[in-house]
Description:
15% of the residues lie in helices and 43% in strands. It is mainly β. The chain folds into 3 domains: 3-68, no CATH class; 75-178, Sandwich (Jelly Rolls); 193-330. The strands form 4 sheets. A 6-stranded antiparallel sheet has the order 12-13-14-9-16-17, with no helix packed on it. A 5-stranded antiparallel sheet has the order 11-10-15-18-19, with no helix packed on it. A hairpin with a 2-residue loop joins strand 4 (119-124) and strand 5 (127-134). Helix 1 (11-29) runs antiparallel to helix 2. The protein is globular and about 85 Å long.
Amino acid sequence: MSLPRYIINFDELTDELRRDLIQLIDDALKDKYPQLDMQEIKALLSEIEDLLPDEKYRGLKNRIEQFIMYKYDGTQKVLGVLLDIPAIISDYKQDFIFDKDIFLTGLHLNQTGWKKNDKYSLIIDKEKIIDGATTKEIGEHKYFNTYYKVDANTPISFILHNLSGNSRQTIVDLEYLEGQETTINPSPPDPDINDIPNDWDIAVRMQWEENSPCDMDLHGFMGDMHVAFWNRSHNGFYLNWDYREHISNNNPEIISVKGHYNKTLKIYIQNYNSVPLKKPVNVKIYEKRSYGVVLLKEYDIEVENNSPLGYGVCSIDLKTKKITDMFTRENLFV
């Protein structure tokens, strides 16, 4: 392992150093102001001068030792895959999932058939760590400035955006420290239609099978507004809950709308991580009336697992409450 390649952030040390300096000055001056003379001031400045490099490099030394001596309880490892990319313009995703916590330290990428307009992304639990980076003609390695902790069973998704439509083979290597622990996030609450916190007229509830690592996503479009996992609300338009699997929970995703009677709501679903489902995805449309909640329509949709395209379910006229089937396949991220 080459230490100079890992960037140490000196700014992280300044707060602690500032506190040490202030405490040193305060201790030296306490109860001494009336009899303070130049000799005492020079002695104090000398102590401060001695403290500056000592504290700075002691902190740096501790951080390097933590990495070298595995004080993060990690073992350096690399996991690699070889992807065969066909000559089709599309996104191609490879998920990495670990059964223990890891600290991600770098990504290596190499490929044949390079084209300058192709890009790639790295997404961890739906957070974009690398967003549309341009591929290089020769292999490249991205070193992370610090470790990115990833809990066990959390998907790390590498996505090649084959914008050129060129066929190639792509090698992806993840460099990481494997931890000794398995972090299991606590089970989230189990909200449903009656638990929607905001006022609403129309609600859309999506449910998929139990005990599945599949990450089904619910999308709503209304004019130029789009609610989904990365943007959960506009004025009167909400994605109330988003869940990334059905191992630790069995909760539905719900979209709700209040007002906007001059608009049409379009509903889509997407198998985000392309995990196969044995059962159809259930979608229900509800209306809140003065006397209670009414189910307007229900869908059971067979979802394919080999395409990133979303499924158009239906459109809802928010004034008349008329529901029109869509049954389309579309790219939801354009």
